[in-house]
Amino acid sequence: MTLRYPVMLFAAGFGTRMGELTKVRPKPLVSVADRPLLDHAIDLVQEASAPRIVVNTHYLGDQIAAHLGGSGITISHETPNILDTGGGLRNALPLLRSETVFTMNTDAVWSGPNPLAVLQSAWDADKMDALLLCLPKENALGHKGQGDFVSNGDNPAQRGPGLIYSGAQIIKTGGLFDVPEDTFSLNVLWTRMIEAKRLYIISYDGHWCDVGHPGGITMAEEMLETYGTI
Questions:
Q1: What average pLDDT does the chain have?
Q2: What domain count does the chain have?
Q3: What letter would DSSP give residue 55?
Q4: Mean pLDDT of the region 192-201
Q5: Does residue 152 sit within a domain?
Q6: DSSP three-state, residue 87
Q7: d(CA 86, CA 32)
Q8: How far apart, in whole angstroms, are the C-alpha atoms of residue 139 and residue 148?
Q9: Which of 113, 120, 157, 193 would disulfide-bridge 201, Cβ 3.0–4.6 Å?
Q10: Separation CA 138–CA 159 (nearest Å)
Q11: Are 176 and 188 a contacting pair, CB within 8 Å?
Q12: Are 106 and 10 in contact (CB under 8 A)?
């Protein structure tokens, strides 16, 4: 499969939940199964043949830039302030050069079908402004909480205790320009899309592990041993 849209990888966060592990390195370079988290995400993107990859950076961004040197991946460095997901995506749009993009967090590890391919196979631009890849709680390792979104069949999504958002989506970017703040979350756009009945979700039938905290490293490695990679 070849992806129709470029991919934005979010890698700018401070990784404070990682404690000592991120005092001297950014969270995307923390290792799981002897490879940086960022490389696990890049593997998925390259396996799906994305036309363009952009990684945003802020905290210790020079280390990520050095790690990606010569890879052909474009960096969107946020300075002087970190811009959150919405502001970061808007800041990177001149590099992405597309009105529709994939976005993916880099602090998770996947086991199962390529998540980007799953999203593309279900994308319907006529009725969707965003399609979020979600998981049932039993398949979302290392995640605490009651879930983020619910949907009745093929109907638009609502917020509620149901499926857990994985950090991967396809989203139209036009609404980013209606937000006056420089720093804002993509939740702002999702709320507007819910009101317009244009936000949809799809359930992922593989496994996924949140590696936003130190305990997630062991859980992710055990998941990969049990279920394998793609």
A1: 96
A2: 1
A3: E
A4: 98
A5: yes
A6: helix
A7: 27
A8: 14
A9: 157
A10: 19
A11: no
A12: yes
> What pLDDT score was predicted for residue 230?
57
Is residue 121 in a domain? Answer: yes
Angle at 138 between CA 135 and CA 143, to 5 degrees: 75
Owning domain of residue 116? 7-227
Q: Return left, alpha or beta for 72; rule: phi > 0 is left, psi -120 to 50 is alpha, else beta.
A: left
CA distance 147 to 201: 13
pLDDT digits (tens, 9 = 90+) for 63-121: 999 999 999 999 999 999 999 999 999 999 999 999 999 999 999 999 999 999 999 99
> Does residue 123 sit within a domain?
yes
- What is the pLDDT confidence band of residue 228, given thresholds at 50, 70 and 90? confident
CATH number of residue 179's parent domain: 3.90.550.10
Within a domain: 1? no
CA 82, 13, 207, 146 dihedral sign is negative
Which value, in Å, is the radius of gyration of the alpha carbons in the chain?
Answer: 17
The answer to pTM > 0.85 is yes
Contact 99, 6 (CB under 8 A): no
Asked if 10 contacts 104 with a C-beta cutoff of 8 angstroms, the reply is yes
Closest listed residue to residue 77, CA positions, set 88, 90, 86, 67: 88
How far is CA 31 from each of CA 5, 27, 103, 199, 223, rounded to the nearest angstrom?
28, 9, 21, 34, 15
From the list 49, 33, 83, the residue with the least C-alpha distance to 224 is 33
